[in-house]
Amino acid sequence: MTARRLWIRNPLAILAAGAGGGVVVEGSRIAERVPSGGRPSLPVDETFDASRHVVIPGLINTHHHFFQTLTRAHPAAINKPLFPWLKALYPVWDKLNADAFRLACRLAYTELLLSGCTTAGDHHYLYPKGLETAVDIQVEEARALGIRAVVTRGSMSVSERDGGLPPDALVQDDDTILADSERVLSLFHDPAPGAMVQVGLAPCSPFNVTKRLMRESADLAERHDCRLHTHLCETLDEEAFCLTTFGQRPVDYLEEVGWMSPRVWLAHGIHFNDAEVARLGRAGVGVCHCPTSNMTLASGRCRTCELEAAGSPVGLGVDGSASNDSSNLMEGVRHALMLNRLTYGAEAVTHLDALRWATDGSARCLGRTDIGRIAEGCEADLALFTLDELRFSGSHDPLAALVLCGAHRADRVMVAGCWRVLDGQPLGVDTGLLREEHTRLAHRLFGAS
Predict the structure, then answer these.
(1) 3-class SS string, the chain
(2) Does the reported pTM lie above 0.70?
(3) What is the pLDDT of residue 342?
(4) Per CATH, is 5-57+373-426 categorized as 3.40.980.10?
(5) What is d(CA 446, CA 38) in angstroms, rounded to the nearest whole number?
(6) What is the pLDDT of residues 72-106, one digit of tens each?
């Protein structure tokens, strides 16, 4: 059976060269870019008039913690830097159960999708008793919503008792973690182009996992051809921990455990020195920039421009909703622009750079060439925004207006050639009911006593 051809025609603006007349989608992929004033080279079955829409590649989120949507703006953690923030929230998160986690995932996926995100990455590292099938839940919820997902099987194996940060109840031993990592890779990981679900391995950070877990996760990733992810160099506290505990800086730790590889992408990557930036670039290690979370926790500024110049892919992530308090990647694009202009100067970082980090840069962090761009053969993952709100009135450059005027909700979103958001509403989700159920559960389980 021949796939139907849809012409998304004459957009107000589009983030793709040679596509002023729009794009043709055939099946799950982009079949053709249409030049301004042109028509598709082959007949189409359907046309969508995009003259009110700014079209960009679907945004790609490369770092999040979905479960944290249940503890946004929690009074135990407000106005704290990372280590005190974690210590305040670990006892709260101990109450997480499977029903609450499912709702948290559903809400986070929906929020991301509404912000124009078509590939949602999550780093779930919390496994209290009863939540052993967390990855299964995340995959089920992604498939139900139709969003592309990169779920990383996170882990913590070093508790307070052994010199780590988390309490005993939140960690698993290395053997349990490695066995479940192999299980979920075998069940869910699809390394092929066009994959809707991929699984990565993500020991949480140097201060709560063993070096053995890091090394054996790297070996497992090689066997299953999957990505590796961890937090690194987010704060100076982490740097001090590594120096005290291991007698080495975090990047030296990364190299010792066999993670200096293009298979790896890191969350945050703030406190690298010049030599470390060069080493990471040579190794092709990617870095997910999390501007909103970094500003909220006052962790510092990612060296995005130096990392890219050295050869490291740079992507974007919203990070957890207890340190961002939102799951809006389009908002993250604006924050990335503003923070990096403050760092590098008004002429050094443009709106196009910030959009590139959230699309092609994020795709490169995930090791994918089939998403993140509007080009023939790429997956038809698209976000369409209108400029009908007062915030856009008087704007002249539509693509710049998306970022500078603060777009935050897509009008239409397509994933793998299928519309998943229409007229600003996610298909198949009652957002009012979702909010009510999620809020009720969050307050019952995690409300401040």
Answers:
(1) CCCCEEEEECCCEECCCCCCCEEEEECCEEEEEECCCCCCCCCCCEEEECCCEEEEECEEECCCCHHHHHHCCCCCCCCCCHHHHHHHHHHHHCCCCHHHHHHHHHHHHHHHHHCCEEEEEEEECCCCCCCCCHHHHHHHHHHHHCCEEEEEEEECCCCHHHCCCCCHHHCCCHHHHHHHHHHHHHHHCCCCCCCCEEEEEEECCCCCCCHHHHHHHHHHHHHHCCCEEEEECCCHHHHHHHHHHHCCCHHHHHHHCCCCCCCEEEEECCCCCHHHHHHHHHHCCEEEECHHHHHHCCCCCCCHHHHHHHCCCEEECCCCCCCCCCCCHHHHHHHHHHHHHHHHCCCCCCHHHHHHHHHHHHHHHCCCCCCCCCCCCCECCEEEEECCCHHHCCCCCHHHHHHHCCCCCCCEEEECCEEEEECCEECCCCHHHHHHHHHHHHHHHHCCC
(2) yes
(3) 97
(4) no
(5) 56
(6) 999 999 999 999 999 999 999 999 999 999 999 99
Q: How high is the pLDDT of residue 386? A: 98
332, 291 contact by CB (below 8 A): yes
Which CATH code fits 59-365? Answer: 3.20.20.140
What letter represents residue 411's amino acid? D
Domain with CATH 3.20.20.140 in the chain: 59-365
Q: What interhelical angle do 174-188 and 211-224 show, nearest 10? A: 20
Q: Report which residue type is found at 392.
A: F
d(CA 324, CA 346): 25
* Domain(s) of CATH 2.30.40.10: residues in the chain: 5-57+373-426
